[in-house]
């Protein structure tokens, strides 16, 4: 049987994004994300649950998130679950923490009345650099539009 480790989350950034670099120069950012879930209780009352998730971003994705996102701003994250394990220096016991390693993020715009004052980029996806083709200029139709079957009269009065 094949395995699948895929996570998709949308929530609000809970703290300013910490950006650092590995000794080899790779960017790494750690963020917190608050993800809300609303459900109905037994009596029909609205119950809101918040889950706080730690997320690690790597490379250009980390740099873009640090530059264009901040505390309180909405963010969409696609990634995978990863279990961090370590030995606690104080107690000597084994410790572990489940987190998300992001493969792709999408900036969802500014949150009203919030943000860290950082610049806001248009909604974008950060997965791999892609080149965009330059837009091609189109020539205006000459002599009329085939959809309407007649010539275009330039001196025609416009009703608005």
Overview of this protein structure:
Residues 118-145 have a biased composition (Low complexity). This protein has 160 residues and is mainly beta. It has a domain at 7-107: OB fold (Dihydrolipoamide Acetyltransferase, E2P) (Beta Barrel). Helix content is 6%, strand content 42%. A hairpin with a 5-residue loop joins strand 3 (27-40) and strand 4 (46-58). The chain is globular and about 55 Å long. It starts with 6 loop residues before the first strand and ends in a 34-residue tail after the last strand.
Could you give a quick summary of the protein structure above?
Homotetramer. The chain is mostly beta strands and about 160 residues long.
SSE order: EEEEHEEE
- End-to-end CA span: 65 Å
Shape: globular
Number of strands: 7
Main sheet characteristics: 5 strands, mixed, barrel
| Beta-strand residue fraction | 35-45%
Side-by-side strand order of the widest sheet:
1-3-4-6-5
The gyration radius over C-alpha positions equals 24 Å
Secondary-structure map with pairings?
Elements: E1 7-13, E2 18-21, E3 27-40, E4 46-58, H1 59-68, E5 74-87, E6 94-107, E7 125-126
Parallel strand pairs: 4-6
Antiparallel strand pairs: 1-3, 1-5, 2-3, 3-4, 5-6, 6-7
């Amino acid at each position: 049987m094949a395995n699948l480790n895929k996570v998709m989350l949308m929530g609000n950034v809970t703290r300013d994004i910490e950006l650092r670099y590995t000794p080899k120069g790779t960017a790494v950012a750690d963020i917190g994300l608050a993800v809300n879930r609303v459900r109905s209780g037994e009596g029909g009352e609205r119950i809101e649950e918040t889950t706080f998730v730690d997320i690690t971003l790597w490379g250009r994705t980390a740099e873009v998130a640090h530059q264009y996102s901040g505390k309180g701003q909405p963010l969409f994250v696609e990634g995978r679950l990863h279990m961090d394990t370590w030995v606690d220096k104080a107690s000597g016991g084994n410790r572990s923490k489940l987190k998300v390693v992001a493969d792709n993020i999408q900036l969802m715009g500014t949150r009203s009345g919030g943000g860290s004052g950082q610049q806001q980029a248009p909604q974008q996806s950060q997965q791999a650099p892609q080149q965009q083709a330059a837009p091609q200029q189109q020539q205006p139709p000459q002599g009329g539009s085939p959809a309407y079957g007649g010539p275009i009269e330039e001196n025609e009065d416009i009703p608005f």
